[in-house]
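User: I'm writing a tutorial on reading structure tokens. Could you give me a worked example: one chain, its sequence, then its tokens, then a sentence or two explaining what the tokens reveal?
Assistant: Sure. Here is the example chain.
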Amino acid sequence: MQQLEMLEKTDERRCCVCKEVKSEEDFYLSAKYGRQAQCKPCHRQANRKHKQENAELYTYYSKEYYRKNKQKYKERDRRYSKNKANAVSAVSYAIKKGKLTRQPCEECGAEKTDAHHDDYAKPLEVRWLCRSHHTKWHVDNGEALNAFTVRHWTPTEELKS
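And here are its predicted structure tokens:
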């Protein structure tokens, strides 16, 4: 009987840091494990400590660095958003005209997918990935090729017909 009580699922968890038993809402969600092992206050405290101990890692993102390099950031963001928008609009237009068909995720087969560009210079060459696999691809591989060099996209004669 005691073993059955231990196996019953509860809405409480024990924090691995402070060892207090708290409600599940006091723990951040984790994609891999459901909920994190440490409670939110302990997690925030650990993040603060890490940031203090590794302040030099965070200087790149500081407001001062941004102010000094504001023009560089604006130029990069302008080019990136324009190129990505061109590729997205090219895919949307091709789907609307029936030249491209949304496919299941090539990794897991999920029906709801995003068009992933390996190269923005080729806006209609896409791979279909679900949101989680698309995000994972960018985490593992970074930005796609030609993210900053693509010019304005216009439909080809083949797409117009």
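What the tokens reveal: The chain has two domains: 11-54, 69-160. The CA atoms of residues 16 and 37 lie 6 Å apart.
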